[in-house]
Amino acid sequence: MKDEENNSENSQSDISDVGLCTINKYEISFNKMICEIMIKSYKEALKTCNYIFDNANSNYSDKLFILRAILHKEIGNKEACFFNR
Asked: pLDDT tens digit string along 23-82?
């Protein structure tokens, strides 16, 4: 019986075993921004986008640049928006 308990304890994955022991803070911020967009809180979404843009890895900056421009357009800030549709 004791062997079965030990096996069941060992078979349960610890989150750190699969590399999920820390959550990427920028992923959390991105999810927050998506929620803000869904509820049409574009100014708050823009603040969150700017935070990610200023602090996250530069690999994402091109996508965030486009998203930031769309948010500026939704807010009505045409000077900061690089395209008009």
From this structure: 577 888 889 999 999 999 999 999 999 998 888 877 777 788 888 888 988 888 866 655
Q: What is the pTM of this model?
A: 0.64
- Domains held by the chain: number: 1
82 domain residue, yes or no: no
Q: 31 in a domain, yes or no?
A: yes
Q: 9 lies in a domain?
A: yes
CB count, 10 Å around CB of 45? 24
Domain that holds residue 52: 2-75
Indicate whether 81 belongs to any domain: no
Tokens at 5, concatenated: 């308990």
Q: How far apart are CA 20 and CA 3, in angstroms?
A: 28
Alpha-carbon span 36 to 26, nearest angstrom = 15
Within 13 Å and on the Cβ side, how many CA atoms surround 33? 20
